[in-house]
Amino acid sequence: MASPSAQKPDSERYGWTSIILHWLGAVALVFSFTTGDPLEDAAGAERVSAYANHVFWASILGILLIARVVWRIRRGFKPNPSQQLALRVLARAVMIGFLISILGAVVSGLLLPWTEGTALEIGALTIASPMSSVPALYDFMAGAHSLFSHIWIALLLLHLLGALKHLIIDRDEVFGGIFWRSANGGRR
Ligand code: HEM
Question: What range defines the domain where residue 145 resides?
Fold first, then answer.
């Protein structure tokens, strides 16, 4: 007999694009985070290489974020799993929080060099600063960068708790649906 998840229509499941974007995004987020911390104490050549490493992962993360938003706009959201309204609201709030946290970290990160009056360097690309150094604005951006680049950790805990609830308590298809595409497809 087919499992309940196998009977759901294609439009209610994730396809490979969503699954791959989700996991690549998770990897890029972890690397953006772990390459950011060493920057604070690095100096000279060590800082230049640590910075290039950090910006590489952050740029990948930014591109993946845009790709995910575009994909979601084109394919729409999967219907919410049946659970209490409060949990559905919490799940959506966590997702929006992730978006804000990542977007905030990328934007504030991009603005750090400019507010310091130096060029933004992303790989071979150099974009001159449109402004001279404004120390107060730089301090504000550095604070915003630190905040946005840490908020996602709390959200991740809630996200994992939610996923485990689906795996252990609800025993529905939600947990497995982000690891593999079901045999009869998925178009979201
Ligand atoms: C292209 C985008 C980004 C640029 C240009 C950038 C640039 C920087 C710079 C210059 C610093 C050092 C600040 C200092 O010396 O105080 C830094 C720190 C840091 N960045 Fe980024 N960043 C970007 C995106 C991200 C993203 C997406 C994350 C995601 C988690 C992130 C996480 C961190 C962390 C954890 C630190 C350690 C310092 C702190 O806690 O404030 N960055 N980043």
Answer: 11-178
